[in-house]
């Protein structure tokens, strides 16, 4: 019996005696099946091949990013937020080994894991069991959980306070239960996964239904997301791929939403 992991998205599935026929994450319109076909691995195989390590980067006081090198699956990084003896792992990556566990324990362990959306569920149960931490997932995305666990807490509504100063907000858009995390530190820091994605020009963000398949979100959905984010006080924004808006992030999100909507409605350009 093994917990098989999809090589394309990096999401771990429930225990089975043989490889699943398909990955429910990748066969859906927001993801894709590799042109080489569906293939599987396990965490044990990833560790035994000795190809991968997790690199820790100290982004700023209280924030470490963790990224698997070389890249695996979608290639996102996770963030460890150190907040008054309550450490939160924001989003997740597939690879976890003894060295990673030791390093995190040296930083104070993990008291909670929070997920933005199903593409980053990866091996979240392995992480939760390693640190005996609850996993917070919005109930609207319950159907996408591929490995059930008693560690998972399905929350409801538009907001959940994990701890004083750490708040989850359901934003929707990319997924119905798509979530962002607000850290009420200094001027405010927002962690968005790719529910909102920082683009190549770090002064702008974008919003998509599917990034690999280039499917945009409707104008009214983006307007709703922007209005919701306008109620949150933040000055800095981190996405899932080491892209950061370091200053004036709240204003940049609003300007980006207006530009996005103008493009969809045919008011931004004439070609």
TrEMBL record:
SMART domains from the UniProt entry: Lactamase_B (SM00849)
Annotated signal peptide: none
Alphabetical list of InterPro entries matching this protein: Metallo-B-lactamas, RibonucZ/Hydroxyglut_hydro
Top-level taxon: Bacteria
Pfam families attached to this UniProt entry: Lactamase_B
Domain Metallo-beta-lactamase: start-end pairs: 75-236
Name of the protein: Metallo-beta-lactamase domain-containing protein
Organism: Rummeliibacillus stabekisii
């Amino acid at each position: 019996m093994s917990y098989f992991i999809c090589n394309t998205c990096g999401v771990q599935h429930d225990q089975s005696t043989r490889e699943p026929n398909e990955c429910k994450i990748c066969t859906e319109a927001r993801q894709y099946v590799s042109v080489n076909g569906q293939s599987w691995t396990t965490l044990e195989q990833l560790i035994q091949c000795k190809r991968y390590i997790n690199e820790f980067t100290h982004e700023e006081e209280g924030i470490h990013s963790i990224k698997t090198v070389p890249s695996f699956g979608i290639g996102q990084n996770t963030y460890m937020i150190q907040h008054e003896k309550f450490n939160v792992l924001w989003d997740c990556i597939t690879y976890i080994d003894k060295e990673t566990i030791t390093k995190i324990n040296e930083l104070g362990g993990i008291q909670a894991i929070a997920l933005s959306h199903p593409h980053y569920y990866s091996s979240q149960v392995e992480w939760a069991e390693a640190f005996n931490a609850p996993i917070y997932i919005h109930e609207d995305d319950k159907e996408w959980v591929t490995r059930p666990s008693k560690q998972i807490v399905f929350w409801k509504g538009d907001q959940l306070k994990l701890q004083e100063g750490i708040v989850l907000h359901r934003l929707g858009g990319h997924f119905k239960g798509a979530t962002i995390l607000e850290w009420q530190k200094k001027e405010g820091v927002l962690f968005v996964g790719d529910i909102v994605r920082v683009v190549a020009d770090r002064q702008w963000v974008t919003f998509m239904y599917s990034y690999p398949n280039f499917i945009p979100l409707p104008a009214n959905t983006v307007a709703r997301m922007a209005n919701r984010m306008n109620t949150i006080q933040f000055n800095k924004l981190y996405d899932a791929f080491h892209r950061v808006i370091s200053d004036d992030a709240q204003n940049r999100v609003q300007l980006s939403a207006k530009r996005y909507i103008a493009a969809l409605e045919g008011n931004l350009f004439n070609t």
